[in-house]
Amino acid sequence: MSHNTINYAHRGASGTSPENTMAAFKRAVELGATGIETDVQMSRDGMLVLIHDESLKRTTGSEGMVGTTDYADLSQLDAGAWFGPEFAGERIPLLEELLELGKQHSLTINIELKNGIVRYPGMEEAVIAAVEAHGMEKQVILSSFNHYSMVHCKQLAPNIQTGLLYMEGLYRPWDYAISAAADALHPYYPAAMPEWIAEAKRQGVICNPFTVNDPDVMRQLIKAGAAGIITDYPDRLAALLAEEGA
User: What does the DSSP 8-state code read for residue 65?
Assistant: First the structure.
């Protein structure tokens, strides 16, 4: 049934709140999200922090890089003021904080490992340990543009789902997913053709396209059988899913 489509809030409700903050994650729940997509990186001292860019500049105004800054310093940065004065004082959250929220609200958490540019040795092990410590193995899907990392995660924790992020129109992408032991394809939505979403599903590979903000595109993807849709506006998707389920 279409209303089982998971409504993933992209970096939280990032259309209306500062991305990857607890404010955005909590707002996503209020707006009807059933999943949250986020980005994880590591501080210099090995803490798992939720932030998209490798650089701190865009969302905190600070010079420097996530991976060369200790968590004590990262935790002092303002990750909300850039979006609007009412969000001043929002912090860069730890993965553990989002896992707590996910557990509380029975959310599916899509954790994107940002290890394509900066490698972050040991990040796969650390993320999996955090997921297991919260008993969230069944509520988490790991994803990355670094597909070697996803193969590594699957070897470490076969019971945690993995998804392969990509931009282009791959040929028979389900074959590729199966070769990497991945559970899911996470394509940029223009590459997600309805007929191959259906074919992937027949081959046992689910599809969670990103980042879909247009209700018409959402409708097409729901109809095509996307398992989840990643959006900046979970309220738009929640309204459509309610309509479809009616």
Answer: B
Question: For the chain (length 246 residues), average pLDDT per consecutive 10?
Answer: 82 98 98 98 98 98 98 98 98 98 98 96 98 98 98 98 96 97 98 95 98 97 97 98 81
Q: Which residues are catalytic?
A: 10, 52
Token pair recorded at residue 55 = 């650089």
- Whole-number Å distance between alpha carbons of 230 and 212: 6
Domain that holds residue 30: 2-53+93-245
Non-local CB neighbours of 133 within 8 Å, separated by 6+ positions: 96
- C-alpha to C-alpha distances, 158 to 120, 148, 155, 181, nearest whole angstrom: 21, 15, 6, 9
Domain annotation covers residue 88:
no
Domain count for the chain, please give it: 1
Provide the CATH number for the domain around residue 15: 3.20.20.190
